[in-house]
Amino acid sequence: MTGLSGSGKSTIAIALERALHERGRFCVVLDGDNVRTGINSNLGFSDTDRTENIRRIAEVAKLFVQQGVIVICCFVSPTIAIREQAKAIIGATDFHEVFIDTPLEVCEQRDVKGLYAKARAGEVKDFTGISAPFEAPPSPAIRIATAGRSEQDSANELLNFIQPRITRN
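RE: above sequence
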């Protein structure tokens, strides 16, 4: 999943993970919080570090996928090039680009960490959506608009998209 900070990526992923577990499917959620505190704790937010962050995540996701695990990745992954790199590593068959499309204003309203306010005040540099660009996917596998919708509605939309793809495996 890609989208701005605060778009709902991790929230939707956790709801999707719960629904898949209820259906007997093993899956794992990888997101910025759980990856940047461990395997990628030495990376910052420069273009080079963002690219390396996603490269490492894609390699980890690929290892899980090769073992039959459904991997739900939730990262801002701000450029088309970064997402294409992840797709090349994981493999086109197993990579489904999900765009969590939430307007910047809504993301700022949801900002529990206060990052947007800090970015606007100049305290956080290279913050995607404020001082660094976000390239929306031109043709994602699915686009989920979250503004004005519940997390459960968004998660159900993604579950309905994903179910036919995972029952083939």
